[in-house]
Amino acid sequence: MKRGLMIVVSGPAGSGKGTVNGKLLESDEYVYSVSATTRAPRPGEINGINYHFITKEDFKGRIDRGEMLEYTTYCDNYYGTPLKEALAVLESGRNLILEIEVEGAMNVKKLYPEAVLIMLLPPSFAVQEARLRGRGTETEDVILKRLERTREEVPLVDQYDYVVYNRDGGVEICADDIRSIVRAEQCSVRRHKEASKEYFNS
């Protein structure tokens, strides 16, 4: 059984990460990484589905034991990817999708260099701003903070392996671009370093 790929998808607010990843998850080839967090569950959230809800003591213990692939803190709570579960998905031959921010992506790249890092972007900064304002769900202050965060994160795109643009009305095209990246990575020589030996010995 071939090993699955760890696929990190990052992108600014308004890039459509959730929608695009949802398209990928329609196939059994892809599994969404369920993060662990120390924050309390929100109404309707299910432990093990939306997040693994654990205590701060438990989370810190996992960090100390090297059991987190990556983690960060936000609003006095920890968020991170459990290493054991992530590796189990890869061993099953399926591809694991991590929808995380740039900081977490850089941590994954250090700990798991085989990961494929994809930056998902709207067509332009102007389109991103229009999408955020068009939602009508966030205050002006929140929108400005999200746009400022974009100015900090997007310049780090050169640390990623691929950039994919999610153009208006093009979610399926965008998802197919990622599927194409996965197919190409599955055939890359760096993932088949024993190809010559296996060829003559099979």
Poorly predicted runs of 5 or more residues: none
The counted number of beta strands is 9
The number of helical runs is: 8
Which structural class do the helices and strands define?
A: alpha/beta
Overall spatial form: globular
End-to-end Cα distance:
15 Å
Which percent bin holds the helix content? 40-55%
H-E order: EHEEEHEEHEHEHHEHH
Report the β-strand fraction as a percent range: 15-25%
> On the 0-100 scale, what is the average pLDDT?
92
Strand arrangement, major sheet: 2-7-1-8-9
Give the quaternary arrangement of the chains: single chain
Summarize the structure.
This protein has 202 residues and is of the alpha/beta class. It contains eight helices and nine strands. The chain starts with 5 loop residues before the first strand and ends with a helix.
Description of the structure:
With 202 residues, the protein is α/β, with parallel strands linked by helices. The protein is built from eight helices and nine strands. The strands form two sheets. A five-stranded parallel sheet has the order 2-7-1-8-9, with helices on both faces. It has a four-stranded mixed sheet with strand order 4-3-6-5. A hairpin with a 2-residue loop joins strand 5 and strand 6. Helix 1 crosses helix 7. The longest helix has 16 residues. 27% of the residues are buried.
